[in-house]
Amino acid sequence: MMSEEEWEHLLAIRTSGRDDSRSDGEHHPYEPTDYCVLERLANSGLIRKKNMLIDYGSGKGRVSIFLAYQIGCRSIGVEYDERLFQKAMINAESRATRQRVSFVLGDAATYVLPDEADCCFFFNPFALHTLKRVLGNIFDSLQRAPRPLRLFFYYPYKDVERFLNQHWRLDAEEPVDCRDLFDGNDEREKILVYSVRTMQGCDLLVGH
Q: Considering just the CA atoms, what is the radius of gyration of the chain in Å?
């Protein structure tokens, strides 16, 4: 398994380091998803080359660039912090993006989901009431263009996880288990996966 430094060198990007200078009750500190977790997700088969991923709170662009490189999917990162967005734009110049990655400076709560998007990734997402607005925009997109769509949540807060598990339009799938990647056998080390039902109540799965 490659180290963080090795991945950064291979992808020719700089995404390491925590940044909490713009964090508040609405937005959590910047902290990139570990490469080993992204490897596990890429190898799960849940995201494929034909898919379009939206990375909410994309920071410096690690998730979008890594998955575009590993899988070949298209990816759009959405980030509200202009400083992090500018760093993502620099990282987007890497050949590892395969010209399949773009970044948007804006508020996730008002971002209009492209009707081609069928995967959404969230790492330690924003406050619950903001997530509800994001989900509303996702549901609106499915109303315009019904299609299979999956949501991926890494390290959501407990109230967010409860909300997701109780939502009538979300069907929980088998999570991507990442406990073995870290010491301590932490139960939270997993990526929660949900398929979104259409208004007709059909629980369609991406790629099926």
A: 16
